[in-house]
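Appendix B. Chain record.
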Amino acid sequence: MSDRFAGLKKIPKDPAMRHLALANMRLDTVPETPASAPVEQVLAALDAKGAWLDMLRLLAAALPPRERVWWGCLAAEDTIPDPSSPPPPLAAARAWVFKLNDETRDRARQAAELAEFDDDTVLCATAVAMHDGKLGTGDLAAYDAPVGVSAMSILGVNLVSLGTADAPDFEAHQTRLIDRALDIARGGNGRLGNPPVAGTEDRTP
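Structure tokens predicted for this chain:
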């Protein structure tokens, strides 16, 4: 297995296929790995086949909620003019990453509900609001969210980010999105050596 996929300590050790099933996702590419293979092994097999979209799917399914949302926040930054002045849904999702509680979760849900129709960062706030498979807090906690909606939302914002890349940079951006997730899975901040956005300098997800 490539060192690129080693040390993903934040990802639970369940088989990759279990992560995908819980997120209501399936791969387009059949990896030549056992059904019990861990995420690292399946990522390596998919990488060998050039199946970058399936790699994004698996990472969205396998990352824990907090790390998954942060990965989505980084992708959302790619899509806006000034990441230091984020739209409300992205600001609320960032706030939840750094302070995990019902208050920040409720703010993310409210930001998602009030978002402009063309604001793709709403995907990050939606992933926060339904990160545990419920519609929200309080009375909403009695109701199940659509299966896998958090993972699918974060996959979606990464694909929106990919859509912002110019044709010559498309493959490099694919790699960047995957490497961000891998860095986060190792305990890093996913910025890959780039400076933090103003206002988050002293924060690590």
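Further analysis of this model is presented in Appendix C.
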